[in-house]
Structures are given as structure tokens and as C-alpha cells.
Design a protein that fits this description.
- There is one protein chain.
- The chain is mainly α.
- The chain is built from 4 helices and no strands.
- The chain has 2 domains: 112 residues; 57 residues, no CATH class.
- It is 94% helix and 0% strand.
- It is rod-shaped.
Length: 178
Amino acid sequence: MNVNNMNLEASKYEEQINNKNESFSAALDDFKKNYVNYNKSPENQDFNTNYMQSRGQLQTLSNDMFALTKTIRGKIEEKSKGLAIITNKLAKEKEIAKQLEPVIHNLTGVKAGSAIMIDDSKTDYKFNYYKNVELFIGILILLALLVSPKAALMIFVIFVIYKLSIFQQIMKIMGKIF
């Protein structure tokens, strides 16, 4: 049911009703005049003919108005049935929406929970990454001690810098650059 089509259809019927109303008013005026003339002089053939024609015209217009009214009522019933179907569908959709509302709220909670879990996983990853780097540097220091005390001292200085978070800052800058 397109609203524009309904408006066009309503305008069409309104125009037809207005036309019938104007025609009916003019025919009724003619009928009144011819009725009075016919009743004053029933033997006059012209008055009789005019009266019969105006009476026939009124009956035709009355029948046309009745047919138009019947058509409009049929259209109204058709539109009413269409609206009833839409109303039923809308009620079903509202019921489905009510049923899905708790699911949506649960999904929103799950989404927030999963974001927290992702953040926790990132934190755990970073912690384990730095722990592994510390173990690697410790192994390098031990190997350097076995090979050369100067190399061990240099690796130890790098490790202290790492522990003081200077290394982490440098790694972040390098990560952004590369």
C-alpha cells in the first residue's frame, strides 16, 4: 500500500463525488421546476417529457452515487484488510523483538567481557615477552662471563638499562618506526 497511490485514489474518488454532487444539485433544481410545471399542467406533453427526463436523470445520478459509494466501501474494506494484515505482522515482529531483547543485552555483556579478556591477554603476552627477553639476556651474561668479563659487563649494563624501562621505551619507538 503506497501512500501516494492511496492519496491519488482518494483524490480521484473525491473528484467523482464532487462532480456527482454538482450534477445532482443541478438535476434536482431542474426536477423541482419540471415537477411543479408537470403538476400544474399534467396534460402538457412538453412538461411531461421534461419531468420524466429530469426524474430519469436524478435516478441515474442516484444509481451512480450508490455504485460509487459501493466501490468506495469495497476499497475501504480492502485497505482495512491490508492494514489488519500489517498490524498482525507488526505485532509478531514486536513479540520477536521482545524475545530478542535479552539476547542483545547478553551479547553486549559478552562483548564487554571479551574486550576485557583481549586486554588481559595482551598484558599477559607483554609480561611473558619481557620475561623471555630477561631470560635471554641472563643467558647471554652467563655465556659472556664464560668467554670474557668485559663482554659480560657490557651485557649486564644493557640488562640494567632494560630493567629501568629505557629499553622498553626504545623498543616502542623502534616499533613505531618499523
